[in-house]
Amino acid sequence: MSLQEDSILGIMITTCQQTKTLIGVYVHKCLIGCSEQGLFTQGQKKRLHDIRIGRLLENMHLDHVAINVKNIKKSIEWYKSNFNCTVLYEDASWGFIEICGTRIALTINSQHPPHIAFSVEGLEDLPGKPITHRDGSVSCYVKDPDGNYLEYIYWPSDVIEG
After folding, report:
1. In terms of pTM, does the model score above 0.90?
2. CATH 3.10.180.10 at 61-161, yes or no
3. Per-residue pLDDT tens for 7-29?
4. Dist CA 51 CA 43 (whole Å)
């Protein structure tokens, strides 16, 4: 078990890297709330931001890449023929396939933007307004400086297990 300690405003916070507790989430939300209310100095805000980003990056991984296609069924057939992909989901407006351990979402432009998605550990890791999708996942989209979409996606345990 790996423990990590950090001190913010003289408060000692000990977190276990393998176990996420409700009190840890509560303390994290309280610290973020205090920061947003202007109760921290700039240095303390930067330290809190660095801790949050470090924790987020430590627990994030590539979830999928989404590309726009004109016809979901036709595209899935092509990927099956050329890459022997596994079809995870398919309907008229969205397809989800896996090739060599990489998941690819096939989307219609009017439904989803092309994007790269990273999974996060919890809802508090979403940097924007959460959107619940038809598959039970919860996410938010952000744009990079060049207008490319990135998705932060959270998979609730009941969705993963179900």
Report:
1. no
2. yes
3. 444 444 444 443 333 344 444 44
4. 12
